[in-house]
Amino acid sequence: MTTVDWCTENIFISPRIPTSEPGQWAVRNVSALALPGGPMYALDNPGVETIVIEKGAQTGLTTTAYCWAIHCLSTDPSTILIVMNSTSDARDKASESFMPLWEDSAKLARFMPKNKNKYWTKLYQRCNGSPVYWVGANSPGRLGSKPVRRLILDEIDKYPQQSKKEAGAAALARQRTKNFKKKGIAKILEFSTPTNEASEIHSEYLNGTQADLWVKCPHCGVLQVMRWAAFKIDMQLAKTNPGKACAEMHYECPTCKKAWSDEDRWNALMPGHGGFWKGTALPRDPKCYSCRYPSWYSTFVTHQYLAAQWLRAQQNQSGLQDFINSECGEPFVHYENAIRSNVFSGLEGQYDEGQKWLEIEPYKTQYSGSDSFVLCGCDVQKDYLVPVFRQFSINGDSGLIWANVVGNFRELDKMSEQFGAQFILIDSRYRTQEVNDFCKNNPGYIPCQGVLRKSMELYSPVKIPCGMNYIDGLTHNPDKLKDILATYIQQQGNAKRWIIPRGYAARLDYPDQMTAEKNINGKWIQIPVGKANHYWDAEVLAILAAIKFGVLDTSLFGEFNIIPQEQGAK
Hints:
The protein has 570 residues and is α/β, with parallel strands linked by helices. Helices cover 30% and strands 21% of the residues. It is globular.
């Protein structure tokens, strides 16, 4: 039997459970989850190992997860681990929701242990002979012992962050399924209300199929995905009569423009009305199913409730973020700290790749008599190098000459000679010894490493051991330098001219890599994780070169503690 059929026949939702719909388990209460291709289908699919759900709040998903676990324990018993945010949360959920499902469903009584004092506690139950362990993510020591076949990770974005010494709770819990993964019978269900683009649930979501729910319009029959943008509320009316505005709020079909009532929306989500889930991405993990489950997929949520939450969210950014997380089930994107790819078309100069912009009109006349410097930043990868050559005027204005990939250090040196680069800063995080040896034997090349500091210091000179001698290198604060680079690109405040050659905005790789990171709470993070950002890192080193050699005045960007340097650009 499928989980839906089995739960319909065997589970009674106890009135002791915090729910507005006690009684015999009914698919109508979680109808969207049960539609073809949806999460409950994935739970029953032996080819799916991990189910990831980015969800809105109060969608009934936790109770549904427990019902699935009970179905498994009753029909194919094996060890289950359920991880909550804290040990106290685990105790509460076990006693308030999980245990009453067994105790108050008459058909499940035969699966409960006779010795309840020993095998029926708030953090451990034995059901049909198999153990169910409850663990708080704040107790990582309890996550590293017994193997488990089935794992439920509830609200993983609320788990305590991992320490430098130990992996996070979710990662430790997943390790416990390894033996069953080898046999192809492990199952991991993880769900959470997301926070931002760097959150764990969103990273896991991107690993899977990213399925969307398609439903039919009751008026025109056109299939569609219900997005928040199609929910209509009169914001002008809300200023004078918010109650009426909330009462009139509705979902509008993007095709026929007809309004849906709550009943129309709920019926569209019911099995038999043509709704289905369909993946939108080729999963990175072929055994991972993922989807997004906003609160309006729940039959407990009304348009009036959504309208009231939306009006409340208008008060400040915190309220807006909470609405996007809790109702839309989406990560909050800090757009004010994200560089958008469309800015690059406005940064193209009147010169071509390979040309030094200060030697081309109209810039040649505009900067007549001004000294200039060609500086290079180079990101190092396993099998290739990614340099960017940028020409700076003495006042800090700059134009990109060339950004691309070279195969080795010899090719980099040829490009440096071709463009007349005075100094080349090379990232030495990878291939460290090879980079240091090359810099030792080639004047003008300087090894650099990013070191995150709490101070405002931008960079420091360091002596790096290389053979029997030492060479000069730099450590730098990457987040602070990225702040400066972002200010350049977005031309904010007192930012100097920062241009790129004609055609670079249309390149597939350059704008994509230059927008690969976003600033979240003061820290620049690759989103999604693993997206190439080589040009971004190389441009950061070019900025560092301009600062170190006195071409760029950092006072334009705020107060930074710059350690005095020797004069280098002579």
